[in-house]
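Thread: quick sanity check before group meeting

JM: Hey all, I'm pulling together slides for Thursday and realized we never actually wrote out the predicted structure for the chain we discussed last week. Dropping the sequence here so it's in one place. If anyone has concerns about the input, flag it before I start.
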Amino acid sequence: MATHEHEITEPVDLCLPDGSLNPAAVGWSRKPLHRANLRGWGRTKRWEYWCVTTPTHLVALTVSDLDFLALNTVYVLEFGTGGREFECSSIVPAARGVRLPDSVAGAPGSEDVVVGPARPTGNKVRVEIRDENAGTRLRARCLTRERLPLEVDLLVSRPEGHESLSVVVPWSEQRFQYTSKHTALPASGRVRVGSEIVKFGGEGNDTWAVLDHGRGRWPRTVDWNWGAASGRTDGHTVGLQFGGRWTEGTGSTENGLCVDGRLTKIGEELDWRWSAADPMAPLSLRTPSSGQVDLTFTPFHNRAVHTDVGLIANRTDQRFGHYDGRIRTDDGEEIAVEQLLGWAEDVHMRW
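JM (edit): ok, ran it. Output follows.
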């Protein structure tokens, strides 16, 4: 079932010279083609979010520029009963020293990103996103609350021809978001916490990276759902990318399936059903008309972030867990999804 949305196949500027949304930029693409030539201050938001998972651990790195401040984060989760959780966050007033490029950071032809001191102390965070011939290098350093040194060194591969999902979501001529979501990218490397080293990748290489690249001009308050997963199931390498609520009424969605490197774009809004009272309850995601998605997500951990620091108020329930059910590609192939590791989040943001 082909989407009704316009597919973009040539490079395009996100904005017109006056900073408003370029109508030619509205649509989706199978690789990043937009140049986020944003103008204006106060409502402009830029970020790079990488999450790399193994069957036992995950690590997430965030570099963000929200105009009036930057929030850069390193997060590590060890799965299972008694699993440890580490989070280091650095707030940078006026986003001083944080500069994100107009295209995907660390991709070929784009700029590298480096934030924070080389030897961070206190609440400071060092994050590096660099282009290497073999892929994108992710490095990070910080001190945990327990004063343990935490170091990340990962390499995300770029398989030839692997497709991603880039979408422009237009609320209005002055409020819009460009998002580029990349799933099911092989990764390898290691994470060190104190004297303990955790290897990512290796034999079987069941280590996968997901990128959320965002550039846009946002309203003051917004609510969204985001779900993603990567891994092997039913003889295929599968990446799931789903969004909800924030795209409603815009004519765009950020829903897609990446199967063996090929993207299926889904133009329907998904039906998300979850318990507002119990963040650990299973939730369901379905396409109400096409039947291309019929999944249940069962969480095993909730990363709850509830903050209010004046200019920014954030309520996030980022649930990590597994997807089960079925999906169908554009060519009609039905794929059984079994225990695909990922997340589903529910966010309210005032920024």
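AS: nice. The longest strand covers residues 176-193. The radius of gyration is 19 Å.
JM: adding both to the slides.
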